[in-house]
Amino acid sequence: QRVVLMDPSEDPDDILRANRSREKTFVFDMVFDHKATQEEVYMSTTKSLIGGVISGYNATIFAYGPTGAGKTYTMLGTDCEPGIYIRTLDDLFKALEATTEEMDYRVSMSYLEIYNEMIHDLLNPSSGFLDLREDSRGSIQIAGITEVSTTNAQEIMQLLMKGNKQRTQEPTAANKTSSRSHAVLQVMVTQKSRRKAMGEEVRIGKLFMVDLAGSERAAQTQNRGKRMKEGAHINRSLLALGNCINALSEKGGSRAQFVNFRDSKLTRLLKDSLGGNSRTVMIAHISPASTSFEESRMTLIYAYRAKNIKTQV
């Protein structure tokens, strides 16, 4: 459960700087090394959330980290090694099948990207930019998004692969196919009891799976001009997410903390699932290369703070 981050530029014989070592130890709920399989990562991070979604809680899974550390691989995977998206939906459908005698259920999903603070529908790319609206109950909706209803995980895999090809990817110095946008897969499970006497009780559980854009520094990607602006937008939304995480983890402290969800589209969309009735998992990715020491350090500090979020479910 421990990650020890060694400083690559450190000289063991330098006595004067012995106390200023940047070596740090972080403790997490679970740490995987390079031998871990997709199955293992899924079993110990996401598997336990499915029961919650079916009983009407929300759940959110984040993949966070610098470009090239493997976020999209963890979430989407490849055809022979499917990632968290597909494994979760597979198990979700199996669990729902088991309850069909008493419950009618409907699963709808949408897949969108947030790029430069604009929302694109990845399943219907021609629809242009979409708006966030708040409905009468105060929940955030995306006007005009395509919702696909299905009970087949294979169909979904094809949709996601197709949608992922529509994602804004640009080569940077850090990675040839760097994702420049946050991809959000939103799955909504609605259940209704078949027995009429029970009253019309409807359970709604939302599952968000977010593949964030790379959190690296601009110096690392050597971006100029348009790419640089884009990076600023990415960092702004990640910063807004970080601010919300900070405010949530300090709640109940000495001062009442205001959580600013309106800073970016990403945090506004995830409002219910960060602070509210929800369980959240953050999968932080770091690269073992010594060139990305700074990135790894920032990533670990960010993820470590997320661990202190306390919500009242």
CATH class wording: Alpha Beta
**What series of H and E elements makes up the topology?**
EEHHEHHEEEEEEHEEEEHHHHEH
Can you count the beta strands? 14
Largest sheet: 8 strands, mixed
Total helical elements? 10
Estimate the mean pLDDT confidence.
Answer: 79
- Taken from the alpha-carbon principal axes, the silhouette is globular
Instruction: Work out the count of structural domains.
Output: 1
Unreliable stretches (pLDDT < 50, length at least 5) are none
The CATH superfamily bears the name Kinesin motor domain
SS-based class: alpha+beta
Keywords: ATP-binding, Cell projection, Cilium, Coiled coil, Cytoplasm, Cytoskeleton, Microtubule, Motor protein, Nucleotide-binding
GO cellular component, one term: cilium
Pfam family, one: Kinesin
Family: Belongs to the TRAFAC class myosin-kinesin ATPase superfamily. Kinesin family.
What would you note in describing this structure?
Pfam families: Kinesin. One of its GO terms (biological process) is microtubule-based movement. It is a single chain. The protein has 313 residues and is α+β, with helices and mostly antiparallel strands. The chain is built from ten helices and 14 strands. Helix 4 (84-97) packs antiparallel against helix 5 (153-165). It is globular and about 75 Å long. The relative contact order is 0.18.
Question: Summed up, what is this model?
Answer:
The chain is an alpha+beta fold and 313 residues long.
